[in-house]
Amino acid sequence: MSGETDLDSLLAGLDPMLHEQPYGFALIPLVQALPAGLSPFALIREAEGLTVIATLDDLSGAGLPAQSQWARITMLVHSALEAVGMTAAMAGALAQVGIPANVVAAIHHDHLFVPWPRRHDAVAALLALGSNRTR
Asked: In b/e form, how buried is each residue of 40-55, taking b as 16+ CB within 10 angstroms?
């Protein structure tokens, strides 16, 4: 099943889901193996090292220091990788209320990471963005 590409449909159906646990970002040198038992949400390889995104509990259990606390918000709408404008619209809505966001896009869903203390404000801004659209 291919994902949605129509921007109005995407924004009307964002259906943001806030995950209950705080997440963190950690960096592992490229020459180092992943710690045993670590179950990351995402791994991103860069020239500077391997960024690990996981719950704070998982990072702590693996002995990895997290850089801040982040909330993970998953857009339950099935967005196509080729969709145009969804990321910009979400980032713009969050920017209007002063919330930074980091986006991880996957085959079925987009995931936003926002500062843990602002998680409820972020969900409200995303819901408002969707309510301003028609299906």
From this structure: bbeeeeeeeebbbbbb
> What is Dmax (Cα atoms) for the chain?
49
Task: For 19-53, write each residue's pLDDT tens digit.
Answer: 999 999 999 999 999 998 899 999 999 999 999 99
- Dump pLDDT digits (tens) for 65-91: 997 899 999 999 888 788 888 899 999
Number of domains in the chain: 2
- 132 and 95 in a single domain? The answer is yes
**Same domain membership, residue 42 and residue 80:** no
Any bridge partners for residue 74, and if so which?
A: 17, 111
The residues with which 51 forms a beta bridge, in sequence order, are 27, 44
Which of 134, 113, 108, 133 has its CA nearest to residue 123? 113
